[in-house]
Amino acid sequence: MADPQSSGYRSLMALPAPRWLAAASLPADFADWLDYAAVVALLVFVWGEGPFVMALFALALTLPYVTAGPLLSMVVDRSPLGRVLFLSNLGRGVVTLALLFAPNTAIVLILVFVRGCVDSAFNPARQAAIQATTPPEMLSAANGLHQAINQTSKIAGPALGGLLLAVMPAQGVFGINAVLSLVAAAIVLRLNLPARPPSEPQGDFRSELLAGAAEFRRSRLLLAALVFSAIAYFAFFLYDTLIALLADEFGYGPTAFGLSIAASGAGGLFAAMLAGRVTAKNPIGGMITGAFVAGIIACLIAAAAITDLKPPVLLFFLTMAIAAGSTTFMLVPYRTIIQAEAPPDRIARVFAAGEAVTMAVMLSAPFIGSVIATAYGTGMAFLAGGVVLLVLASAALIVQRSGAIR
Q1: Which CATH number goes with the domain that contains 378?
Q2: How far is CA 183 from CA 23, 28, 29, 361, in A?
Q3: H or E element at residue 404
Q4: Mind listing the pLDDT tens digit for each residue in 195-206?
Q5: Domain that holds residue 34
Q6: Are 383 and 302 in contact (CB under 8 A)?
Q7: 227-254 tens-digit pLDDT
Q8: What percent of the chain lies above the pLDDT cut of 90?
Q9: Range list of β-strands (E), 140-213
Q10: Position 93 in a domain
């Protein structure tokens, strides 16, 4: 990896294609986070759903990346990236608009799943576009920038969502999100992407489908990053979908919940800008640090919930900010490793394969977390996730110090 100090964000944004790609990501990511807060508020605070439905919500969010993602990634690798980015943003806008008319939980979950299928094409295409438009020495900065955009959206989106929820039904937010996706699609039309090398045929359909997974067998660094990421996400989702329920138990309302997501975005924003600079030389080390911090925070939250300690809302916001920052320190290095190691003609399949493995591993986590929360209380689900993260970070540190991965 290159020295991050030689490839700052200002130099990156001086390039037209990365600048327009970042501009298109702003409304796209903003809509994602504004929408997430609205869906959770609708399910938990309006319709009074509990842990099982929140586990189904997590399943609807993640299952598309296991099912549709690998198939659509083959199309992404063979299609003009600008067209994929435009159509996927357009599709997300249409499905989000349909949420405005959803009459019950079942329809909301179905629409969340359908939109996830569209999104499973958008994310690999964006990763391919970052690789295609970014000089290799700037990849870490580019991933830090896009994660910073996501986290900025995480600040503004839920904060605005929390305010809007005070004056309109949760469904009213979906119309705003649909417009934002259409704006992102319009900006993509200004994006001039370089031609990619043609994708080399891998043989039959099965070989084409598994071409991305084959790259993880070729690169020890890719494989180590994937295994770490999959286990970390499993740990996160033991408790992630229970945050709204925890906020409710602490006596916070839907507005405070939206602001807590915004606080998470603030922590993630700071960490993204930092990770884009300091993890370039040692991406696995950055992931280990993030897991250690995330595990400690989850255990502290668990201790408060188990002992019926009701923390001040500002302390809760600060905790969410630190937790999100530690997660970002795992995500930015992982994406940088993929873009540095994957061949351009199959990066979409490599990214989609990694997402599919990660999501498949963590699919059971929300249900396990809901069972733990139902039987022993929400705090115990946070404790289980925190312990898994601490064990993962400790094991990875031992492996790295042995010289097996760098």
Answers
A1: 1.20.1250.20
A2: 10, 8, 12, 34
A3: none
A4: 766 666 555 566
A5: 4-189+204-401
A6: yes
A7: 999 999 899 889 887 888 888 888 887 7
A8: 21
A9: none
A10: yes
